[in-house]
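Model: Ready when you are.
Researcher: Fold this.
Model:
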Amino acid sequence: MASVKRLRALLADTSKIVVCPGVYDGLTARIALNAGFECLYMTGAGTTMSRLGMPDLGIATLNDMRDNAGMIASLDRKIPLIADADTGYGGALMVGRTTEQYIQAGVAALHLEDQVVNKRCGHLKNKELVDEDVFLTRIRAAVNARAQAEGDIVIIARTDALQSLGFDAAVSRLKAAVAIGADVAFLEGFTSKEEGRRVCQELSPTPVLLNMVAGGVTPNFTVQEAQDFGFRIIIFPAFALGPVYQTVAKAAKYLKENGDLPKSDAESAAEFSPKALFTVVGLRESMEFDVAAGGKMYSNGV
């Protein structure tokens, strides 16, 4: 529960904003941890792409998401992980089970949305919503499951209602969710900075999360702008997805056309040696642990 307490403490400090790079596997999580971020975000789209090789269309299951979130959360139990939980993967019983499973996996916060179970990325068109009563049933199920569990988790209520129902209806859904126990509000897909300012004002003092999707429908905010507008959490889901796609696609094209990998200078080659990459994901710590336990395999290094 240390990470949940840490996240609640960060949210209680109104002078700061929680900045979360979007990660989707062990390597991207380690890179973000090594950079010194105080909180991570597990992107559902990235999890679906990396684990299943498929688009974010409600295809990933609870098991897919929980297992990935649990692995990422285990890398550093002190650092909070906020994880996408989509629609909760079913009715009230399944939402309750999802909440319990995320708590057991060491996740510090999850967000639940009001799309139908066959959902789609919040920055795509023609999203379908459930009735407000169904959405609130999901939130209530998560709140009740948290109360029964031997643990804690921050519950983030997300609505995708802005696109089809308008700003007032979307904010009304979020206010209702907060009234029954959600800790943080998340208005997805707003299209102007003024709407961002308004949602923070309307929901104050409840913390509001900003989803900063590169190339999405929401205008770009820097971290400082987001804080100035009143947001308390900002997530960058495509933090790793974009650079990985661009770099690997370029390398794949070069290899296909030239039968070799792109040449790099000596400094870059050393940076990407097997040992250097293993160090990113804990080589040194693993060796030290083995030696401390009396192991001999790594006493002379690798």
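Researcher: Now this one.
Model:
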Amino acid sequence: MQSVALIDYGSGNLRSAEKALARIAEGTAEIVVTHDPDLIAKADRVVLPGVGAFASCMAGLQARAGVIEAMEAAVHGRGVPFLGICVGMQLLASRGLEFGETPGLGWIPGEVRKLEPADPAIKIPHMGWNALSDVADHPLFAPFRNGEAVYFTHSFAFFPSDPADVMAYAEHGDRFPAAVARGNVAGVQFHPEKSQKPGLALLKRFLEWRP
């Protein structure tokens, strides 16, 4: 049975992500909530959740001794599939521009910046269901139909330097990346664990993904 390391670094949506992954694993995977570097380094898949501000989430991740190094050993050293969720996706960036500038993991070059709709009537944070558009031909994302709705809650978004790393977009006053991928690394700005059937389908594809 494959193991999925769900990284515990004080993120707010940890339990809901664990519950959703366990629901769709159906005995094919063991979901391990952990910040143990040894377990992470040996895992077959890695999931990084996240809720909150970029700087505080990055600080929380760095405060777990050896966790970033273990993630890099698994994801870059052994090539295991990785999925970042919400701020977990944003931490893939080179830097975040929330409360100043904070370096990210730098796994996908780009920056995280605030959503700034031209229309002042459009509220930030962006909370609710929004449609995906310009969905790329990628094993994780191609099954999404253009126009399929998923659930978002965020004020900032990750804008990769290379548009080829963007797998889908959404719009809230302005267009922003809703999903990214490069090699065996993928991330979603939306919350699959809160996106009902489409979100659970994405998590199932992740457990089956062979990049």
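Researcher: Key takeaway?
Model: The longest helix spans residues 196-208.
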